[in-house]
Amino acid sequence: MRRKSTKNIGPQPDPRPPKRQRRREKVYLRTKNSLLRAFLFIVFCLLLVSCFDKGDCLFTNTNVVKVSFMDAAKPLQPKPVVFDSVFLPFDNLYTPSGDTISTLMLVTNPRVNETAFVFQYAERSDTLVLGYSTQTLVLSPDCGSYNFQSNLEVLHSTFGDGRVVVTNPRLLNSVTNNIEIFF
User: Which runs of E-coded beta strand occur in the chain?
Assistant: First the structure.
């Protein structure tokens, strides 16, 4: 028996009807079962309503002060600095291994209204005392309470006059930096 070869067959016509005669298909759920449609609609509505039962426990605050070191000659350009250590008077916060850094995160104490930091670098030591106010807020009984710190200000600085600038007085996660120190 001889097989037919597909090589010699010419182009085949499109079996679908022309575009003008084609029927548009619906994109939504293709089922004729109205009970299934009604059930899915009710489940979808219940899922949407259940999202609004409890309040959102979004904590946008932090107790971290974000410090950027800037070049005094070029105010918009960061300046990397080598620190020997950065610490609270009684705790060690940062002990680098000879790395140059242009940003630093300093942790504040929410139990008090001011925190002092000591920066040691290049045989020099500078002190920065930050003041802030702490409020305890309750979003909802399910979320509990949290501390919200704001009104960040420089109480004392040995870096020099005008060298420490508060760019954002609120301690939030979304803030890129709170303080700029010019070297």
Answer: 64-70, 81-82, 85-87, 92-94, 100-101, 103-107, 114-121, 124-138, 145-157, 164-166, 179-182
Q: How far is CA 42 from CA 30, 39, 45, 46, 176, in A?
A: 17, 5, 5, 6, 44
80-107 burial, b at 16+ Cβ within 10 Å, e below that, comes to ebebeebeeeeeeeeeeeeeebeebebe
CA distance 72 to 140: 46
SS3 call for 101: strand
pLDDT cut 70: percent of the chain above it:
73
Residue pair 61/152 in contact (Cβ under 8 Å)? The answer is no
Other beta carbons within 10 Å of 129: 15
Examine the pLDDT at 26 and tell me if it is beyond 60.
no
Kindly report the pTM of this predicted structure: 0.66
